[in-house]
Each structure stands twice: as C-alpha cells, then as structure tokens.
Amino acid sequence: MTPIKTLLHSTGALALLCLAAAPGQAEVPQITRDDPQAAPGTEAAAPRLKPLPPPSLNFYGSPGLIDMPSAEMLPDGQYAVTYSWFAGTSRYNITFQALPWLSASFRYNGIQDLNLFGFSTYYDRGFDVRARLWQERGWLPEVTMGLQDFAGTGIYAAEYFVATKRFQAAALGWGRGPGRLKISAGLGWGRLGSNGGIGSTGTRPGFVGGSTGGKLATDQWFRGPVAPFAGFEWQPDERWSLKAEYSTDAYVTETRRSDVFEHKSAANFGVEYQYSDRVRLGAYYLYGSEIGLTAQIQLNPKHPPTLMAVPAPHPVNPRSQWATEEAHWSQDWAASETKSRTVRDRAAEALKADGLVLEAITLTGTSAELRYRNIRYRSQSQAAGRAARALAQTLPPSVESFRLVPVRRGLGLSVIEIRRSDLEALEFDPEAADALFAAAGVQDAGPLPADALFSSELYPAFASSISPYTEPAYFDPEKPFRIDAGLDFTASYAPAPGWRIAGTIRQRLAGNVKNGRASNSVLPHVRTDQSEYAQFGTTLENLYVSRLWKPGRNLYARATAGLFETMYGGISGEVLWKPVNSRIGFGLEANYVVQRDFDQRFSFRDYRTFTGHASAYAELGKGYLLQLDAGRYLAGDYGGTFSLNREFDNGFLVGAFFTLTNVSAEDFGEGSFDKGFRFRIPVDWMLGKPSRSGFGLTIRPTQRDGGQRVAVPDRLYGPVREAHRKSLEDQRARFWE
Hints:
This protein has 737 residues and is mainly beta. It is 11% helix and 43% strand. The longest helix has 17 residues, at 337-353.
C-alpha cells in the first residue's frame, strides 16, 4: 500500500495537552441552510451548526494540518501566537492576517544537536508569506500559494501550492451531526519537495544567506524537486479535531547531516482540542518515531476580550425645552467678564466629569471655541462628542456654533465645527453619525485667539508618576530571550502652553540583559552595546526640554534638547506639514546627538553624529498607514526605511518595516539589513475601560548598528494625525458614545 493510501486508511489516537485559559464559544459566523441553490457539499447546504473555531495552525504557525500547510486563511486581522515542539525542535511563531487574502509569519526556531554553524542548539529566524489565489466556491477548492522561510538562512525554505476543500457530514451522507471534513493536497518545493518527489523544475542552489541570512532567496523559489503532499482534518464537533497527513519533508538536515531524530515514516497523526475561543492545544505522533505538542493562541482586534464599560454621556437637552422665554436667549452675558468666567468654570467642571480638561475657551454671544485636552479617550471623535455635550449642557442658549479644538501639549491639532441645533436634532437619529459628520467642518486649528480665557488651574503645571517598565533583548544564541524589569519615576513641568520639561529616573529591580553577548559589529556601536548599558541599576533614562508650536497654516513644529533616551542626548528639531483634510503629510527632522556613557548619568562618550530624515506619510484606507523615511542614520549610513502599519478602529496596531542603507550585508552582519515588526495593544481593548495608554513592542530578528534612528520624545505625526479628518471620519460613530 502506498504511503498516501496508508495515510488515508489509518486513524490515530493520541494523548492531548489540556492546560490554558477558561473555555468559551468559538468566534466564527454560524453556518446556515438558507440557500436552496447551494451546491451539494457546500456549507450553505448544510444544516444550522454551532460556531466553529477559525482554521487550526500547523507547526509553522500557518493554517494547516500538522507539518504541512492548508489553503485556509484566518479571519481578517487575526493575530496568532503558537509554540510547537518535537524531537528537540522548538518553533515560536507569530502570524498576522494582514488582508483577507494575505498573511505573514515570523518564526524563531531552536534545534538541538543540529551541529550547524558550530552551535549545539541552533537558533534560526525566518519569515513566511501566504497569498490566496481563489476562494472556495461550490466544488472548487480554496487555493493558496506560500513562501516559507524566504528571507533567512533558508534552513526551512520551501514553496508550495495547496488546495483545501471542506465538506459537512450531512452533505457526505454521514448523518446529520455537526461534523466537518477538510481535505488538503498540494505540491511542494524545497523542504516540502525533499520526500516522494515526482519530478524537478531545475536545480535548486544551497543556502544563499549562509550564516548571515536576511537575503531573499529568489533563485531558489519553485526550483528543484517537487513532491505532492496531502492530508485531512476531521472535526466531529466544535471542540475536537483529528488530523492525518502525508509529509513531503524528509528532514534531510536533521536526519542525514545530524542526529536530531530518526525519520521512519512520512505519515503524521494528531488530535487537537479547542479549549477556548482563543486557545487550541494539540498532540501528535510524527514521522514514525516522535511525539509532538502545540499550543495556539489566536486574537482578533475586532473582538476584544471584554466589553467596553464607558459612563453614559450627558444627554443633549434641546434648548426649546428649557429656554422658553425671550430673555433666556439674550447675548448680554457675553459682555460681562465675570459672567464669561462663570460660564468657563461651569464648562470646565462638565468637561472634567467626562475626563477632559479645558485649556482655553473663547466666547461670543453666538459662538464658542473650546480648546481641550483629551486625557481619557483613545478616539478623538469620542472626545469631541463628549466635549460638545458638555458645552450644550452648560453654555447659554444664544451660543449656536461650537468650535472644538483638541490640544496636545498646548498645540491645537484641528478645529471641528458643529452647530448646536444639529447636535440637538440628531441625538436619536439612526443615521446620526453620518448626518452630523456631513454637516460638520474640519479645519486647521490656527493660532490661539487673543481674547481666549485660560483655565485658571493649568499653568504652571507639575505632574509625576510611577510605572513599571520592561526592557527585552532578543535572539542571543546563548539565551534567546533576556529581559530587565523595574520601575520608572517620571516627573514633568509645563510652565506655559507648548513647553515641557520632563525626566525619568529608572530603577532596575531584576533582569539578565547585562549578561548578553558583546557586540562584534564593525560599524560604530550605536545600538549593539545594549548589555553595557544594562550593567547599572539606577539610571537617568531621560531629561529634556521641548517646545511644540504651529509656525503656520497646516504646519507643526517641535524643538527638543537634553537627554532623549538611554543611549543618546543632544538637540532635535522637526517640522511637519499635514493639512487637516488630506491623507498625505511630509516631515523633516534633524538631530545632533552625542552617545551617552554606559552609566547613563550626565557624562558622554566620544561618539557624536548628525542624523536626520525627510519623511512622507500616507493614510491608505482600511487602517493602513504608510511611512517612507530617507536620510542619515546613527552609524553615519545613508538610506531609507519603509514602514507599513495597520491600525484598527479600536487602536490595535500591527506593522512591519525594513531599512536599506549603503552599508553592505557583510558590514551590517547577521541579518544583512535592518527589519522587524511592531504591535501595540491599547489598554481599553484589554480592560474595557477608557484609556489612551497601550502596550507596544518592536521586535527585530537581530539588533545591529545599521539603519538605526534616535528615539526622540514628542514626535509629531501620530498625535496630529489622530485629530484630522480621516481619523475623525473613521471614528465618527464614536462621537455619540
């Protein structure tokens, strides 16, 4: 009997892993039987079923069987973290569904006893990308193309085409239960063409990246022996699934060049359990000799773990219901400074109850311009809605026009103009969000009016805080993950609008970053001396003075001087051109920096340099933000950085970047060029309470000295953009929350 027939006629019963988060229902749409024209075997022809989990993931963190891929895609925006282990091989995978048809993965592997490049445990990093070619329709399967480990040393490099077809048990005549069968088959090259080959598409070169890695192995793609793989997954219900596959990975490096494990069979078997809507566990019997385990966690920014608990906004009480006499509509109050200040104070109290701070207000008999700080809400549209309600609650009836100006560090970001009568008329309208935004105007903030009434409590202002910090270090071959943790003691002083003096004292309480490997860079050590900076327990993290202001229409400016970050101090200037109603922005930044001493007090090292960039920003729609930077980096190299982020309406952000400069791959060292990915999880997404804070992380496959920028506080684009038309429009429904 052939290996594929053996696979399809075999069943596996294995022990399973069962420790994780609390159980819950899986988050996918229900399958219904509402379409009488649906072809037999499609989900539309099946009886109504309970929700089923998203596609399960293989040992490489992508939708698949066990070691082999499937053609399925995760729900749009899905973020998955997986860990898999077998035969001394660990794989840590992060996968993000960037588009409905495109996903990308980052993987960190540890292979014991591989004896490759002189390491007893060989650690390797790799990137995968998958693109769906067409969706499943009727009897037509879903088809996907994938590139595996396409930009690294190539130890797991493979390419494939795979097709997947799903069937309901009822459509197959297997009763009317909720079961579902998924069958996948495909053709693989590289690792996935090393066993059971049926032909060849040319000669495949060896590892083009060598020990440095980081290069695109385009001359390998779809070259060399090609082999067919296949497998199935049977889901008897929404919790359990049984898997079997015929693998075309011969594990040549692990079994013939090293003694990692013994490859006895191409058939793999497994059982998985969907423990909760986010956690999936699995156990497997692999290659006739090994036991394997996986743990999978999937999150989707569109489905927060808790519901948002926001205090109800103030009702908009129409003036027609309480301003019933002609005297109520008089504008005489505006001529009295005392009455105007009373109105200001009442508005400030109403704003404070909603987590907003009145910075300044300009009042006439028929209009009000409110400048306010948003310290609570991540959405500027939601903050504007709360500010408008506070004004409607407190201002005299004669005031019809509201000009709402969100402010950051004294810098007016935009003007949102609305009519009070529109606010009153639309509060309960089912199309209120669209109607009010269509009637509103968004303009450049302009200078502060000379007759503005400032809050009597704001300047000078002193603030302080204590917060925990973590400082990770990744991918040291001796210890792949190191981390320091401790407390930050931060204080700031704002003597006037736009001015800020701030500093942070850092106290390390525990950690092992100081034991990391020494730098071997041939470039100036602008970032690779992290372990040297981690030797000291009490440090001055930063101490600087900054000023933000508007030099002209659609222009924003920043000047900063002092100790910017752990490694650098100096002077920095930035100018941003960003029209309120445009999706495009351009910026210029220039920095003269001096490298700080390792003890991070007030002394400096000999290294100093000029660094600066010209930047272009574009909001592409659907939450995608593109940034292009070109200029001089910290090591004196010239080049550019490409960044693409996806930001969801709830503030969840995932992005990737790469930098190419005139530093050669050999001089750059391991990784060949700078690249990485970042993500940010907002606090309100996790806790369900309004907050502007978030947890962010940037991960590089390797930290080198090429393509590095200085971290300067108060950079302009992010805060400015979130108060401009595109962001306000995307969040317009939150105006009424």
